[in-house]
Write a structure and sequence with these properties.
Helix content: 55-70%
Distance between the termini: 26 Å
Largest sheet: 3 strands, antiparallel
Number of domains: 2
Oligomer: single chain
Radius of gyration: 20 Å
Strand order of the largest sheet: 3-5-4
Order of helices and strands: EEEHHEEHHHH
Strand content: 5-15%
Shape: elongated
Number of helices: 6
CATH architecture of the largest domain: Orthogonal Bundle
Length: about 150
């Protein structure tokens, strides 16, 4: 992490913690190629130093966590961009409605699954619940980040 002033193309950026792409990759657990992909798809803001280093603010680590969780929910890059770039309530409300509809659909599927598992052996029930538990934890993390 770099906490000094940088001379960036077009001026100075003073006193803010900036990370090079390799540092972001290491801290996020993602490859530099993945971070480049997200940057090129306008999911991550980047600045360049005079030496042409890609510099990211610490905030991108939080954004990358959100992206990971959204990807686990099978959202497309365009959908993820909309979620990340949504700042105003007018933009967030339609997304919230979509999420609520998806949750309602999942509730129905869970009820159906519970009905099917009613007479299933205990071993099979444990296997299904263990699998679902991981996914539900991801959904809870996602909701906490929103």
């Amino acid at each position: 992490m770099i906490k000094i002033s940088y001379k960036l193309k077009g001026g100075f950026f003073i006193g803010k913690a900036l990370l090079r792409i390799g540092q972001v990759a290491k801290l996020s657990g993602l490859s530099t190629r993945t971070i480049d992909y997200y940057t090129s798809n306008k999911l991550l803001p980047v600045t360049r130093s005079d030496s042409n280093y890609r510099l990211y603010s610490e905030d991108v680590l939080h954004t990358l966590e959100r992206i990971k969780l959204l990807k686990k929910q099978r959202m497309s890059i365009d959908e993820i961009r909309k979620v990340i770039q949504s700042r105003e309530e007018d933009e967030i409300e339609p997304i919230m409605n979509d999420v609520q509809n998806e949750i309602a659909c999942l509730h129905k599927k869970l009820a159906s699954l519970e009905e099917r598992l009613k007479d299933a052996p205990q071993e099979e029930k444990k296997k299904v619940y263990h699998t679902l538990e991981k996914k539900l934890l991801d959904v809870m993390k996602l909701l906490s980040l929103m």
